[in-house]
Design brief:
Distance between the termini: 70 Å
Largest sheet: none
Number of strands: 0
Order of helices and strands: HHHHHHHHH
Radius of gyration: 19 Å
Oligomer: single chain
Helix content: 55-70%
Length: about 190
């Protein structure tokens, strides 16, 4: 019998759950092994090391996040698609803080190339932005604007960083409106005002 019914998928899923409970940075092989009632060494036939485990959690979480976003944006364009994308992103970040933190780690480029979830993320994001008439290099710049805005907002919200009495959800909606305006009137590369 396999130790505690361990498989690579079970180990990674348990690590993702643990990340949501204790924070991604606090996930360790020892804590994970304790959760399964096994010795640390039992995990090494399923993951190479802590970095491998963290990378796998990042891919799992990235896949979950893009699945949510894909469902949300299906059949939508423009402001409606942007709002659905943003809301799905924010909901995931707030509901799964450890998993979300995993999606923010730097991953070796050779591993990214083989990830269907990350390719799908790029396809959905770039597809939504192309509806605004954007092409490279503006697409990359717009992706960076969205990611930094969404990530910054979610990080501040989850840490209690918004202290003003204004409703946080309403501010989020206004931020998405502002992004829509910015994307609609995007200053094209080389365009002179």
């Amino acid at each position: 019998m396999a130790r505690a019914g361990l498989t690579a998928d079970r180990v990674v899923a348990a690590a993702a759950d643990l990340a949501d409970e204790v924070g991604f940075e606090n996930v360790s092989l020892s804590a994970l092994a304790r959760g399964f009632g096994v010795k640390d060494a039992s995990l090494y036939s399923h993951v190479r090391n802590l970095q491998d485990l963290r990378t796998r959690v990042a891919f799992l979480a990235g896949g979950e996040l893009v699945d949510r976003i894909a469902v949300a944006v299906a059949g939508r364009t423009g402001r409606e698609a942007l709002g659905a994308f943003a809301d799905a992103y924010r909901a995931y970040a707030l509901e799964h803080p450890g998993r979300y933190a995993a999606t923010q780690i730097r991953i070796d480029q050779s591993l990214i190339a083989g990830s269907p979830a990350l390719r799908r993320t790029a396809e959905i994001t770039y597809g939504m932005l192309r509806a605004y008439g954007l092409e490279e290099p503006d697409l990359t710049d717009a992706v960076r604007l969205l990611r930094s805005t969404f990530h910054g907002y979610c990080a501040l919200e989850s840490s209690g960083g918004f202290g003003a009495p204004r409703d946080v959800r309403r501010s989020w909606e206004r931020a998405v409106d502002a992004l829509h305006v910015a994307l609609t009137h995007w200053p094209r590369e080389g365009q002179v005002d």
